[in-house]
Amino acid sequence: VCPFSAIEFPEPFSLPRVIGDKCRLCGLCYRICPQVGIVDEVRGREVKPLATYMARSTLAEVRGVAQCGGVVTTLAMYLLDRRFVDAVVSVGRDEYWRPVPKLITDKLGVLEVAGSKYTYVSVLTLLRDVVRSDAIRSVAVIGLPCHMRAIEKMRRLKLAASQKVKYLISIFCMHNFEYGVVKYIVEKFGLDIKSISKMDIKRRFIVKLVDGRVLEVPLKELDQFVRACCRSCPEFVSTIADVCVGSVGAEEGWSTVFVMSERGRGIVEDAVRDQYLEVKELPEKAMKIVAKLISMKVGSR
Ligand SMILES: Cc1cc2nc3c(=O)[nH]c(=O)nc-3n(C[C@H](O)[C@H](O)[C@H](O)COP(=O)(O)OP(=O)(O)OC[C@H]3O[C@@H](n4cnc5c(N)ncnc54)[C@H](O)[C@@H]3O)c2cc1C
Ligand code: SF4
Ligand code: SF4
Predict the structure, then answer these.
(1) Which atom of ligand 3 is nearest to the CA of 145?
(2) How far, in Å, CA of 223 to CA of 215, rounded?
């Protein structure tokens, strides 16, 4: 966002650093910060989905790699297939489980970034490349509720970085961690980091290994790695995104889907019609669990 290139990220997942003598104190970074101003606005908003579903991908290649129902990956593939967008902004990872922002233009690229990485990363830096590209006229951004808040602020300021963003797909988020969480788990169990195949949170932090072993860590033990801003973040479900997807409340292998806008309804219904996604009714019990988590986050200050 900085027009003077005064902000640097030593690593994409590090906290940003301001290069003192380059900063002209224009205040733009403050104005688009997702933790300033807009947090109070969204805290007071009722989460009112236009539709809710339990959904999963019909595509076998997605189901094999996705975090739960593969809904996010499938919607991104659908948008690219139908040329509703030219690219997708998302998060991949390297072999050390370090998150890497990715600008993706093909289905294979979307498949490669499937699955949750429990480390924060500044995906929106990629919008700079989007602005500069003539070939990319529109993008879908996949991210966390705080990424959605930053985009909303960019839109209000009519920044070029937000002008090509057509679809917003958000994942539910209770909190996220510093990269230290990965190092801690690796040291605790004496693991080769490359042997980790999946991480998940289901009451406990779950680590799956390529040899089939499953390790668990109580979330309380990892509390020291929770990002400071997550402690005061009011959003479990984004009210800004077009579609929000989580695992909580859904059956194994399915996702919980909240459709938040008419644009979101359009792509979900089209993806179902074209047999990319299958959906069923989200049970009342799941709605209650999501509602409880929403109110827990609203209460965090
Ligand atoms: C930090 C974090 C916290 C979460 N907390 C909850 C929770 O409390 N309750 C709940 O129900 N669900 C939570 N989720 C969402 C859940 O893990 C799944 O991502 C979601 O259900 C979508 O599943 P899927 O199979 O459709 O996703 P997939 O089809 O596997 O696609 C996942 C997409 O998310 C993107 N992604 C992965 N990690 C990140 C990241 N760190 N930042 C931005 N984008 C990322 C990937 O690039 C991929 O495009 C969380 C996810 C993350 C990353
Ligand atoms: S205040 Fe302006 S010049 Fe300074 S880092 Fe922020 S955006 Fe850049
Ligand atoms: S808890 Fe809020 S601030 Fe933290 S990663 Fe999730 S959406 Fe972003």
Answers:
(1) 7
(2) 17
